[in-house]
Amino acid sequence: MCAPLQRSACALALLAASGLAGCGSDAAAVRTVVAVDGSSTVAPLTEAVAEDFQRAYPGTRVTIGVAGTGGGFRRFCRGDVDVANASRPITRTETAACAAAGIRFLEVPVAYDGIVIAVHPSNTWVDALSVDDLRRLWRHEAEGQVLRWSQVRGSFPDREMHLFGAGVDSGTFDYFTGVVTGVPRDSRGDYTSSENDNTLVQGVATDPLALGYFGFAYFEEHREYLKAVPIVAAPGTTAVPPSRDAIRAGAYHPLSRPIFVYVNADALAARADLAAFVDYYAEHAADVADDVGYVALDAAALRAVRVRVAARTTGSLFGGRQDSASLARTLTARLALDPAP
Amino acid sequence: MSRLAQRARERVIEGGLAVCAGLSLVTTAGIVAVLTWETVAFFRDVSPLAFFTGRTWTPLFFNQQFGVLPLVAGTLLVAAIALATAVPAGVISALYLSEYAPPRVRRVAKPALEVLAGIPTVVYGYFALLFVTPWLQQWIPGLTGYNALAAGLVLGVMVLPLVSSLSEDALSAVPPGLREAAFALGATRLQAAVGVVLPAAWSGVSAAVILAMSRAIGETMIVAIAAGQQPRLTASPLVPIETMTAYIVQVSLGDVPAGTTAYRTIFAVGTLLFAGTFVLNLCSDWLRRRVPGAVR
Q: How many CB pairs under 8 A join A and B?
């Protein structure tokens, strides 16, 4: 951005640029605003992209709210914001609300969010945990009750268990508790909680009796100091260890999911600043995804998403489907089937 | 004319000085007012009995519990470990500096000790987390990555100069006559130091210890980094705990909505902390004023 001394020169340059570009309705204002609201899980990614975008396009400011996916869609379908951050596909009801208000939208998958259950590398007893094990361990009824490994499973040693997990302000917390206990934010409170994933990694990596959960990218970065626990989604199914491929294929279930931004199609057609932001997002999300803890789309999916964005293809790939089992699989499959223009 | 101008100038300077002095008073009054206001609001939602006697602290979670004891226990545990480190080491080094060290050594050693006080606490915090804890883990198998022990030991090192410097002041202030009388009766240096000088400086040394305790209880960065963030009612120094200060940091860094009970917990905890350190500081002040022969 401009250094203070150069500010006036900068402003002049901007004026000249916007005059030359002669773009749309907002040409008079030096700064235009792209309004984003929605999921707190997606917000860090959008923030990271917006930070780079604003450096490249100093004339546009991006404001990012964290009203939650549902709250974001409510505002989006009223036309209050141009972009909705969403940690799940849009529902049928929300699609109907948007349609009623005459709002058409682009659906842009931007990354995958995956959560890793990790233990100390010296932990020899945990080979896998089921979602049901996790539920009995993390629900609020377990607070002050489930304190030893042997209480999770009889075959585990009768030793203390030290829990580490997301802080209540993080999207990871909402997602994990929602998937594991069935009720978002239903969690025990007697564990080391932090919004800073590095704190959690440090805690688990230095404590042989620890178990913690955090974003996949943090696990991958510190793989040698941690051991990931494979997850059994349902009784009778095989345990799946977390990996980039498993997350992208939807096999690491239910602790991974695709995340999206939704864009108002008419605003996108009318406003150059919004178009610049959305194109920038589709182009650069993969570069910053890992830095903020997510898994970038694979190359084929990225290409397909860029084609959809470039063609301004409206509508959802999911038709209101919400079951997380098939979301990632659906995403890959639907993107591949999506015809190039 | 010039006399008048001078008098006016004097008055302006006096006024400026008074404003400066008043500023800290006003700030203190403001802090106390805000703390009181929010704490009163907090206790409208949460019964003081539950706050002071509850054994579970989970104000941010599904099952909200407001028992502050785990945070108090964590704070006292870390402070106790810190004092167990700082008091013996501090008093002994003070005795050495005042009774044994040649003036030349004292001139170098005392400022050198005080340099410890100039190290930023965030450096101490990571020193505890990344150096002291891994080192201790070689000897103590059950020690977890975040623990009260390493944080307490490093906190002890941090308050060490406070104890040694203030104790040394108190010991040096003991009238030389007492020492000479002891020597005249055939006392060795050690007998004079431990049997006569130290008891004579008792109130000054206690004041130093209490001030160090107040400092240890209020210290934030070291415990937030190295002691963990899990409110746990335990006396074990080997597992993660959370202190009152670390809790306040944790909530302040997040985005708990202002005006909620969860948000007001930080003011209730802050008031408790403030009350604790305030009483300790008063005690220390009172003791210090009783130092014989020392006017400070």
A: 81
